């Protein structure tokens, strides 16, 4: 199936909603190993995105994702603002000129977003960051479409991989970001950024799962 611009906008709205509902939870996770603002930061940015939905509806997919990026960079703050901003900026570039997205386009969007976060944040798998949820999700998505799975099956598998990746951050020692200042005390806590990434994938799978292939 092809993913439409309307579905991309629904994804953003669904993610904003998930962030709003999990604002306290994300902030609690960040209180344990950071400065207790991840939920607040993300909610501030994504409420701005929701306010811009009418404007985004007039843009093509790539321009809308670029607007989201600019909004996040200017309003989220912290480490996650530039990182999510980079994700959406690279995602925007990956789908330039597309009116709707094939499975391959969606794979390129996710891969470009991941590559941007890797370059910008210089974290690796196992560093206890967003990457630990995002990287396995992108791999799972690409593998699934390579096996001929439908868009909705592929995004469900990506979401499951993100969830596992998020849970796998619990025993990790943080090597990047504020949590790394804690050294051993960062162990036994789930990473807030990996958790918001899981919510991002889950939101996409909810939107795509609503339509049959
Ligand atoms: P800050 O740490 O500046 O307060 P947030 O609390 O909004 O920013 O976001 C923290 C999250 O950012 C962490 O849980 C982690 O997942 C992510 N993060 C921090 N540094 C990096 C990095 N270098 N690469 C990838 N993700 C990172
Ligand atoms: Mg923080």
Architecture overview:
The chain is an all-alpha fold. The protein has helices at 5-21, 23-33, 38-51, 53-56, 61-75, 80-94, 103-121, 131-146, 151-168, 192-209; strands at 3-4, 100-101. The longest helix has 19 residues, at 103-121. The protein is globular and about 45 Å long. Bound molecules: adenosine-5'-diphosphate and magnesium ion. Residues 30, 34-35, 37-38, 78, 178 line the site of magnesium ion.
Q: Main attributes?
A:
single chain; 213 residues; mainly alpha; two-stranded antiparallel sheet; globular; binds adenosine-5'-diphosphate; binds magnesium ion
Percent strand equals under 5%
Strand order of the largest sheet: 1-2
Number of beta-strand segments: 2
Q: What characterizes the major β-sheet?
A: 2 strands, antiparallel
Q: Estimate percent helicity.
A: 55-70%
What is the mean predicted local confidence, pLDDT? 97
Tell me the overall shape.
globular
Query: How many angstroms does the end-to-end distance come to?
Result: 6 Å
Pattern of helices and strands: EHHHHHHEHHHH
Total helical segments: 10
Each distinct ligand = adenosine-5'-diphosphate, magnesium ion
Q: Radius of gyration, Cα only, in angstroms?
A: 16 Å
Spans of at least 5 consecutive residues with low confidence: none
Structural class of the helices, strands and pairings? mainly alpha
